[in-house]
């Protein structure tokens, strides 16, 4: 079977994939859920000290994921959510995956898509430019709107407690070279590689 690498998005950790891992493992796949550099701690630790969130860069994160991928015996299938989808596109563009799937991917540089619901989701970060270089998170209600709006409030709160971190808000303000802003990192507007999306 295949190796599958699941790449998490911002505001969460690899724990966000915890229900996906046993699903793919039951089908015989090897599944890895690498953390971004410094994110390999419990969610509570990142909330208490968000320094890794505020300091890690896109190039550092891509290099970290490239190392994990190239250590595998074969090219893996890479699946990324949100900003993990953007990282998946970068990794595939560099020839690191057999195939890739992006789920609600953050757009690469040059793609300007800002629906009103996204503005509302990001308002806790965008509402104050003074937060630009701080790690900022969501309240449980804001997390429910932005991430878990198909869940009941009770299930959303459980997901928030389990998964939600803060995030360096400068990324949302397009701070170059940090996670959340692909500007200045060589992220192509459209990846050169072809993508195959299939149902399991």
Could you explain how this protein is built, in words?
By secondary structure, the chain is α/β, with parallel strands linked by helices. The protein contains eight helices and six strands. The strands form two sheets. A four-stranded parallel β-sheet has the order 2-1-3-4, sandwiched between helices. The protein has a two-stranded antiparallel ribbon with strand order 5-6. Helix 1 (about 20-25) links the parallel strand 1 and strand 2 (about 30). It is globular, with a radius of gyration of 16 Å.
Number of helices: 8
Helix content: 25-40%
Which ranges are low-confidence, i.e. pLDDT below 50, for 5 or more consecutive residues? 168-200
- β-strand number: 6
Features:
200 residues, 8 helices, 4-stranded parallel β-sheet, alpha/beta, disordered C terminus
Q: How are the secondary structure elements laid out?
A:
Layout: E1 3-7, H1 20-26, E2 30-32, H2 43-48, H3 51-55, H4 58-70, E3 77-81, H5 83-93, E4 99-103, H6 116-126, E5 135-136, H7 140-146, H8 153-163, E6 167-168
Parallel strand pairs: 1-2, 1-3, 3-4
Antiparallel strand pairs: 5-6
């Amino acid at each position: 079977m295949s190796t599958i690498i699941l790449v998490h998005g911002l505001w969460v950790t690899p724990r966000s994939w915890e229900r996906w891992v046993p699903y793919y493992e039951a089908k015989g796949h090897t599944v890895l859920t690498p953390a971004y550099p410094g994110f390999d701690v419990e969610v509570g630790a990142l909330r208490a000290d968000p320094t890794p969130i505020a300091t890690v860069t896109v190039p550092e994160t891509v290099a970290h994921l490239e190392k994990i991928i190239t250590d595998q015996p074969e090219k893996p299938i890479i699946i990324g959510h949100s900003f993990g989808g953007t990282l998946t596109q970068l990794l595939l563009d560099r020839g690191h995956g057999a195939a890739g799937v992006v789920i609600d991917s953050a757009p690469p540089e040059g793609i300007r898509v800002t629906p009103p619901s996204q503005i509302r989701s990001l308002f806790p970060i965008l509402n104050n430019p003074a937060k630009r270089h701080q790690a900022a998170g969501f309240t449980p209600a804001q997390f429910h709107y932005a991430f878990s709006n198909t869940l009941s409030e009770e299930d959303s709160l459980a997901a928030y407690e389990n998964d939600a971190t803060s995030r360096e808000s400068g990324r949302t303000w397009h701070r170059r070279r940090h996670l959340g802003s692909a500007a200045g990192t060589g992220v192509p507007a459209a990846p050169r590689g072809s993508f195959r999306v299939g149902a399991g």
